[in-house]
Amino acid sequence: MTQLRVGMIGTGFMGKAHALAWRNAATLFPLPLQPVALLLAEQDAALAATRAAELGFVRSTGNWRELVADPEVDVVDICTPNDMHYPMAMAAIAHGKHVYCEKPLGLNVAQSREMAAAAASAGVRTMVGFNYAKNPIAALARQMIQQGEIGRLLHFRGTHTEDYLADPNRSGGWRILRERAGMGALGDLCHIVSLALLLAGDIEELCADLQVVIPTRPAGPVGREAPTQVENEDQAHALVRFASGAIGTLECSRVAWGRKNGLTWEINGSEGSLVFDQECQNELHYFAASDPPARQGFRRILLGPEHPDYAAFCPAPGHGLGFNEQKVIEVRDFVEAIAQRRAAWPDFDVGRDIDAVLAAMEVSSRERRWVKLEPGADRPANGDGA
Amino acid sequence: MTQLRVGMIGTGFMGKAHALAWRNAATLFPLPLQPVALLLAEQDAALAATRAAELGFVRSTGNWRELVADPEVDVVDICTPNDMHYPMAMAAIAHGKHVYCEKPLGLNVAQSREMAAAAASAGVRTMVGFNYAKNPIAALARQMIQQGEIGRLLHFRGTHTEDYLADPNRSGGWRILRERAGMGALGDLCHIVSLALLLAGDIEELCADLQVVIPTRPAGPVGREAPTQVENEDQAHALVRFASGAIGTLECSRVAWGRKNGLTWEINGSEGSLVFDQECQNELHYFAASDPPARQGFRRILLGPEHPDYAAFCPAPGHGLGFNEQKVIEVRDFVEAIAQRRAAWPDFDVGRDIDAVLAAMEVSSRERRWVKLEPGADRPANGDGA
Amino acid sequence: MTQLRVGMIGTGFMGKAHALAWRNAATLFPLPLQPVALLLAEQDAALAATRAAELGFVRSTGNWRELVADPEVDVVDICTPNDMHYPMAMAAIAHGKHVYCEKPLGLNVAQSREMAAAAASAGVRTMVGFNYAKNPIAALARQMIQQGEIGRLLHFRGTHTEDYLADPNRSGGWRILRERAGMGALGDLCHIVSLALLLAGDIEELCADLQVVIPTRPAGPVGREAPTQVENEDQAHALVRFASGAIGTLECSRVAWGRKNGLTWEINGSEGSLVFDQECQNELHYFAASDPPARQGFRRILLGPEHPDYAAFCPAPGHGLGFNEQKVIEVRDFVEAIAQRRAAWPDFDVGRDIDAVLAAMEVSSRERRWVKLEPGADRPANGDGA
Amino acid sequence: MTQLRVGMIGTGFMGKAHALAWRNAATLFPLPLQPVALLLAEQDAALAATRAAELGFVRSTGNWRELVADPEVDVVDICTPNDMHYPMAMAAIAHGKHVYCEKPLGLNVAQSREMAAAAASAGVRTMVGFNYAKNPIAALARQMIQQGEIGRLLHFRGTHTEDYLADPNRSGGWRILRERAGMGALGDLCHIVSLALLLAGDIEELCADLQVVIPTRPAGPVGREAPTQVENEDQAHALVRFASGAIGTLECSRVAWGRKNGLTWEINGSEGSLVFDQECQNELHYFAASDPPARQGFRRILLGPEHPDYAAFCPAPGHGLGFNEQKVIEVRDFVEAIAQRRAAWPDFDVGRDIDAVLAAMEVSSRERRWVKLEPGADRPANGDGA
Question: Which among A12, A254, D86, D162 is placed 20 to 30 Å from B206, CA to CA?
Answer without folding.
Answer: A254
